[in-house]
Amino acid sequence: MIKEIEDREDVSLLVNTFYKNIRKDELLGPIFNKHIRGEQWTAHLEKLTDFWVTALFGVICFKGNPTLAHKKVDENLNHTIAQAHFERWVNLWHNTIDSLFIGTLAERAKRASEAMAIGQFNAIDSFRPNLK
Hints:
There is one protein chain. By secondary structure, this protein is mostly helical. It has a single domain, classed as Globin-like (Orthogonal Bundle), CATH 1.10.490. It contains six helices and two strands. It has helices at about 10-25, 30-35, 40-55, 65-75, 85-100, 105-125, and strands at about 5, 100. It has a two-stranded parallel sheet with strand order 1-2. The radius of gyration is 15 Å and the shape is globular. The mean pLDDT is about 95.
């Protein structure tokens, strides 16, 4: 049943469903599975749920630095993260939301993902060494 996002439980369902799909995605799965080991996923999903609870409800519970995390992954991948990776992430996020939720917060989560994808790509790109 598709419903509105109402609470942390809904956000957790969204985050867990999304990353289950990410881990199987042929473009993004190898990246995520390389950088987040099996035993680390539970804590990572809780942190991401905190992030989205903060973003959607304004309840400050997230502690972390997404830009630093993305910068480290890009470094580990020899600065090969491309805009296409973030576009795929946004597409999967939108599809997951649409499969589970409707309403104002679902739309806010989509818009936030688009802004974050642009911001994170620009941020990691700005940290890259000048390879000219």
